[in-house]
Amino acid sequence: MRKVAIISDFDGTVSRRDVGHHFFGAFVPRRREWLALLDEWRLGLISSRECLEKELSLVRADRDDLDGFVDGEGLDPYFNDFVDFGERRGCELLIASDGLDYYIDRLLARSGLGHLDVRANRLVCDGPRLAAVEFPHYDKMNCTRCGNCKRSHLEELRRAGFAVVYVGNGYSDRCPAEHADLVFAKGELLDHCRERSIEHVAFENFRDVERVLTTRFILHSGNVSL
Ligand SMILES: [Zn+2]
């Protein structure tokens, strides 16, 4: 039995929708340019760092617009219960995102989860202006596709002796999913795991994750049999 750390993606995994993506979609007027940028990113021609920097330069919104947008978004309805479940068992919980800390912090705080550990790219505001994105976790794993390569957080926990469970749904979850001890996948990540024969458990929401962890992997007292 090993002590367990659970790392979860945020956009579309903890949150119901990809908040960052839909925010830019709503406030970038030059839509064709934005869609071309996303194609380049999906093809791996540019990193998410470059993509986010360009998206921020294209967006026509201020902090009030962002706050208003974020306040219309919501979390997986079972995520609060899942956090309780993990905390009661003494698991390490970490949110790792290649999106922006600003809306993650705001949404978590609104759900009473402001204490969670979050590693994400940093949105810098200058008064009402969305001024810049900083990348405090960039290039820790010689990875050119991520702004915040989630694998670096995974390896850090592994070195500390944890078995790492990874929960995600998208493109930026590929790096960590290839190295986790157990992967929960939906969406694009699920397709990727199937194509590459990466062992995984398909899930829809955090109630599924909780159920599988308790029934198949005997999770108790912060340990897991992986
Ligand atoms: Zn990476």
Concise structural overview:
With 226 residues, the chain is of the alpha/beta class.
Structure overview:
- There is one protein chain.
- By secondary structure, the chain is α/β, with parallel strands linked by helices.
- The chain folds into two domains: 2-16 and 74-224, Rossmann fold, CATH 3.40.50.1000; 20-70, no CATH class.
- 42% of the residues lie in helices and 20% in strands.
- The chain is built from ten helices and eight strands.
- It has helices spanning 19-27, 31-42, 48-58, 63-70, 79-88, 101-110, 150-159, 174-177, 187-195, 206-216, and strands at residues 2-8, 92-100, 117-126, 129-134, 163-168, 182-185, 201-202, 223-224.
- Strands 1, 2, 3, 4, 5, 6, 7 and 8 form an eight-stranded mixed β-sheet that branches.
- The protein is globular and about 50 Å long.
- The mean pLDDT is 94.
- It binds zinc ion.
- Zinc ion binds next to loops.
Question: What are the defining features of this structure?
Answer:
globular; 226 residues; alpha/beta; 2 domains
The CATH architecture designation of the largest domain is 3-Layer(aba) Sandwich
* Helix-strand category: alpha/beta
Number of self-contained structural domains: 2
CATH topology of the largest domain: Rossmann fold
Helix content: 40-55%
Strand content: 15-25%
Return Rg in Å: 17 Å
Q: Give the number of helices.
A: 10
Write the layout of secondary structure elements.
Elements: E1 2-8, H1 19-27, H2 31-42, H3 48-58, H4 63-70, H5 79-88, E2 92-100, H6 101-110, E3 117-126, E4 129-134, H7 150-159, E5 163-168, H8 174-177, E6 182-185, H9 187-195, E7 201-202, H10 206-216, E8 223-224
Parallel strand pairs: 1-2, 1-5, 2-3, 5-6, 6-7
Antiparallel strand pairs: 1-8, 3-4
Helix pairs in contact: 2-3, 5-10
Bound molecules: zinc ion (ZN).
Zinc ion binds at residues 141, 143, 145-146, 149, 151, 175.
